[in-house]
UniProtKB/TrEMBL annotation:
Disordered as annotated region, ranges: 299-318
Superkingdom, natural source: Bacteria
UniProt KW Nucleotidyltransferase keyword: no
Pfam families: CsgG
Recorded GO CC terms: outer membrane-bounded periplasmic space
InterPro entries membership: Curli_assmbl/transp-comp_CsgG
Keyword set, alphabetical order: Cell membrane, Lipoprotein, Membrane, Palmitate, Signal
Native organism: Candidatus Nitronauta litoralis
Listed Basic residues bias regions: 306-318
Matches recorded under Gene3D superfamilies: ABC-type transport auxiliary lipoprotein component
Keyword Lipoprotein: yes
Protein name, entry field: Curlin
Organism classification: Bacteria, Pseudomonadati, Nitrospinota/Tectimicrobiota group, Nitrospinota, Nitrospinia
Length: 318
């Protein structure tokens, strides 16, 4: 029996070693154009609006104030990305394949104004002398009726942790997992009145898992066999933030349509999409239990066709 267990563990370790080039590639991967999430595809597939919406985004900050935990101490690296503003702008530009929003630059407004000042000064000094005419003026900056605010408001770590392991006579394996969550808040504000038109909140889980196996055993006199193998899978937090931001942009569009702030160009498509969105928004998975605490049914309102019933266990009542 012991020989069989040892052979099984060694076979598993050899398989892990054989696919190690896939888990940890020696060569680095090529640069990619972008990370496509499910929310990105949903956002980009939105139909054309009645008219584009001009918006500005000043700052979409990390409001969590959290740092990555280090070994024994807290490091200086933040737990989430500091480039959420760029992510939000990109998500707005991708909405409806670029037909929903016209985004104006405001994050680097001082740099923009400084560059316009340089252009005016250059034209004033050189253009008027060479042409003998009036200095050509720059066109005025566009202004937006709607301003978007918000940020990353929460990052909860170790919401769920767990693992499983076993070891027998120096031979064993174990696995462990961890789930975190990031929360995004986004609101649309009327620039003229200062009213908050609509606000939405989205969240995304971040899952990490590790697995390893090893042998630590004396196979003979003063002969020690020690073998270790393992891998870890971590979902990038910035990708989770990106997907949550894209979902927030999608939700803001649909909430605005529901409130009559803006609308789709095709009323029929609008009614169909709103029905789907409202069903998703109100979806709450419910579970039913009997008096003894046994699960008897699970219902998902977002999918009316889904309904699972469980058979009762134990002796039947007469």
């Amino acid at each position: 029996m012991l020989k069989l267990i040892t052979a099984s563990i060694l076979g598993s370790l050899l398989l892990l070693g054989g696919c190690s080039h896939k888990i940890q590639p020696v060569k680095s991967a090529k640069a990619q154009l972008g990370y496509k999430t499910q929310s990105h595809l949903e956002l980009r597939a939105l139909p054309e609006p009645a008219q584009p919406i001009i918006v500005v985004v000043y700052k979409f900050r990390d409001q969590t104030g959290q740092y990555k935990p280090g070994t024994g101490t807290t490091g200086w690296s933040t737990a989430v990305t500091q480039g959420a503003t760029s992510m939000l702008i990109k998500a707005l530009q991708d909405a409806g394949d670029g037909k929903w929003f016209t985004v104006l630059e405001r994050e680097s407004l001082p740099n923009l104004l400084n560059e316009r000042k340089i252009i005016r000064q250059t034209r004033k000094e050189y253009d008027a002398k060479t042409k003998g005419a009036r200095v050509q003026k720059l066109p005025p900056l566009l202004f937006a009726p709607i301003m978007l605010e918000g940020g990353i408001i929460a990052y909860e770590s170790n919401l769920i942790t767990g693992g499983l392991g076993a070891r027998y006579l120096g031979i064993g394996a174990n696995t462990k997992y961890q789930r975190d969550m990031v929360t995004i808040y986004l609101r649309a504000i009327s620039v003229k009145k200062g009213l908050v038109l609509k606000s939405v909140t989205t969240n995304k889980t971040i899952f990490s898992m590790g697995m390893d196996a090893g042998v630590f055993k004396f196979v003979g006199f003063q002969e020690l066999l020690e073998v270790e193998a393992g891998f870890t899978t971590n979902e990038p937090p910035q990708m989770a933030v990106l997907e949550a931001i894209e979902k927030a942009a999608y939700s803001l569009i649909m909430e605005g349509v529901n409130e009559g702030l803006w609308k789709f160009k095709d009323p029929k498509i609008q009614a169909k999409l709103m029905k789907k969105y409202l069903r998703e928004k109100s979806a709450i998975v419910t579970a039913e239990f009997d008096q003894k605490g046994n699960l008897i049914a699970v219902r998902d309102p977002s999918n009316p066709k889904y309904g699972k019933k469980f058979k009762r266990k134990g002796p039947r009542r007469r």
